[in-house]
Design a protein that fits this description.
- It is a single chain.
- With 234 residues, the chain is of the alpha/beta class.
- The protein has two domains: 14-71 and 211-228, no CATH class; 74-186, Ribonuclease H-like superfamily/Ribonuclease H (Nucleotidyltransferase, domain 5, 2-Layer Sandwich).
- The protein has eight helices and five strands; from the N terminus they run H-H-H-E-E-E-H-E-H-E-H-H-H.
- The chain has helices spanning 14-26, 31-40, 47-70, 117-131, 143-152, 166-181, 188-205, 214-228; strands spanning 79-89, 92-101, 106-112, 136-139, 158-160.
- Strands 3-2-1-4-5 form a five-stranded mixed β-sheet, sandwiched between helices.
- The longest helix is centred in the N-terminal third of the chain and has 24 residues, at 47-70.
- The N and C termini lie close together (11 Å).
Length: 234
C-alpha cells in the first residue's frame, strides 16, 4: 500500500513548508523573521502559517531524522555528558535535562519542575531506553545524578571534574540563542516539544566544521540538505 503524503491537504508546496520549518527551528529567527525571509524569495505566507507548519510537521521531521540516525549511532554508547539548564516558563523556573555524546550529538531532552533524584532517574531511564547504557557518564556535582545512577546500578561509570563537562555546556548555546528569539516559553509541553525538535534538527545539520576540511564540510552540508528535502515524501 502506497504511503499517503502528509502534505496532501496543503496548497503550499512541500518544498516551501520544509524551508520554513528549517529556517524557524534551525536559526534564531522569529516567526515574522521567517515570513520576511520567504517574502524576499517571492513566497507570500503569513507568520501564522509558519507557526502552524512547524507545529504540524516539526515533530514529524524530527522523528524521521531520529529513526535514521539512531541506527548508526553505536559510538554514542561510549561517553555521555549530562547537564541540566534553567529555563523560565511564565516567570517560573524549570529544568531542561540534556544528554549529549562525546561528539556533541544531542541524545535526549527532558523538562521537569524540579531536579531531584526522581527527575534524574526518569531522564536517565528515558535516554537509556533509546540508546542503551554508555560506558562513561560525565556529570556535574548535582547529588541527584549520583543517587539515580546508584539506583540504576551504574554508579561506577560516573565521572566528575571541573572541565570534563564542557561538551554539554557548549551544546546549550544554540538552544539558548533559539530561546531568546522565541521570547521564552509559556508551557512545559511547548518547551518539551520544541527542545526535542530542535535537538534533531541541530544534530542533522551540525557538521563540526572545525574538525574537517572545507571540501568535506561542503559535501556533508549538501548531503544533509538533500536529506532534509526528502523528509515526509510518500
Amino acid at each position: 500500500m502506497t504511503k499517503r503524503s502528509p502534505f496532501r491537504y496543503f496548497k503550499t508546496s512541500p518544498e516551501i513548508i520544509r524551508l520554513a520549518v528549517m529556517l524557524y527551528v534551525r536559526f534564531p529567527l522569529s516567526l515574522r523573521n521567517v515570513e520576511d525571509l520567504l517574502h524576499e524569495r517571492g513566497i507570500d505566507v503569513s507568520h501564522e502559517a509558519v507557526r502552524y507548519w512547524w507545529h504540524r510537521f516539526g515533530p514529524m521531521f524530527a522523528s524521521e531524522i531520529r529513526k535514521r540516525r539512531i541506527e548508526g549511532m553505536k559510538s554514542s554508547k561510549w561517553r555521555w555528558h549530562l547537564d541540566e539548564m534553567f529555563v523560565k516558563i511564565n516567570g517560573e523556573k524549570h529544568y531542561l535535562w540534556r544528554a549529549v555524546d562525546h561528539e556533541g550529538e544531542v541524545l535526549e531532552s527532558y523538562v521537569t519542575k524540579v531536579r531531584d533524584k526522581k527527575a534524574a532517574l526518569k531522564f536517565l531511564k528515558k535516554a537509556m531506553r533509546k540508546y542503551g547504557s554508555p560506558e562513561v557518564l560525565v556529570t556535574d556535582g548535582l547529588a541527584s545524578y549520583g543517587a539515580a545512577l546508584k539506583e540504576i546500578g551504574v554508579a561506577d561509570k560516573q565521572e566528575m571534574g571541573r572541565w570534563l563537562n564542557n561538551r554539554v555546556e557548549n551544546s546549550h548555546l544554540p538552544f539558548r540563542r533559539r530561546e531568546r528569539a522565541m521570547l521564552r516559553f509559556r508551557r512545559m509541553r511547548s518547551l518539551q516539544k520544541f527542545a526535542a525538535v530542535h535537538a534533531s534538527v541541530y544534530n542533522h545539520f551540525n557538521q563540526e566544521r572545525s574538525l574537517s576540511s572545507r571540501t568535506n564540510f561542503k559535501l556533508n552540508r549538501a548531503a544533509a540538505l538533500a536529506e532534509w528535502r526528502g523528509l515526509g515524501e510518500a
